[in-house]
Amino acid sequence: MEKLAETTYPIEELLRRRWSPRAFADRPVEAEKLLSLWEAARWSASTANQQPWYFIVATKENEVEHARLLSCLRENNQQWASRAPVLMVSVAKLTFDANGQPNRHAFHDVGLAVANLITQATALGLYVHQMAGFYPDRVRELYGVPDGFEPVAGIVLGYLGDPTILPEDLQQREVAPRVRRPIESFVFQGVWGETSPLVAPH
Ligand SMILES: Cc1cc2nc3c(=O)[nH]c(=O)nc-3n(C[C@H](O)[C@H](O)[C@H](O)COP(=O)(O)O)c2cc1C
Known about the structure:
Blueprint: H1 13-17, H2 31-42, E1 53-59, H3 63-70, H4 75-81, E2 86-93, H5 106-123, E3 127-131, H6 136-143, E4 149-158, H7 168-175
Antiparallel strand pairs: 1-2, 2-4, 3-4
The structure holds flavin mononucleotide.
Residues 19-20, 77, 130-133, 153, 178 line the site of flavin mononucleotide.
């Protein structure tokens, strides 16, 4: 099922194609494709090239590990994410390597790496769903995440599944149109809240 972004201005096809499904096919993701995803993340930009991203991963091939990582997701997300063949949690290193000072862009840079990963995934026919709904403290405890590192987001991915595998309420959300705020609402110039003339309707 395609849910192409209905853009006002042209953007790259890969960006149009990305969306966050909840119905995943019962099909494993090839090991070499997973490597391409992390390779894409690896080549992301980051503050002072600190590369503060880390990923904890589990795949369906190892059911025990899959169940362990699944247990870190909030129950509402577990409901649909359990079918996804690949589960991950992104983790940020919060300090600079050289001096241990706080890196206030660590989360930003982990997000950039995940954005790269998602674009690569889209190119490979995969779909990704990120989640704030997970238990960071449980991740920390179960996987021994050290101090100075922070679990950022849950990430599940796989091939698209049939929406009818979902419960009724989620099925409706799966097929609902994608909506966005207009560009005018978030590009300012001169003073906060004033839409830039660059994007104001002509
Ligand atoms: C950091 C982050 C956290 C999210 N958390 C959840 C979540 O816990 N559960 C969920 O179902 N979707 C979650 N989403 C998915 C968003 O709801 C989704 O990206 C948004 O509605 C836009 O839809 P689209 O990705 O299909 O364009 C999250 C997305 C991001 C980027």
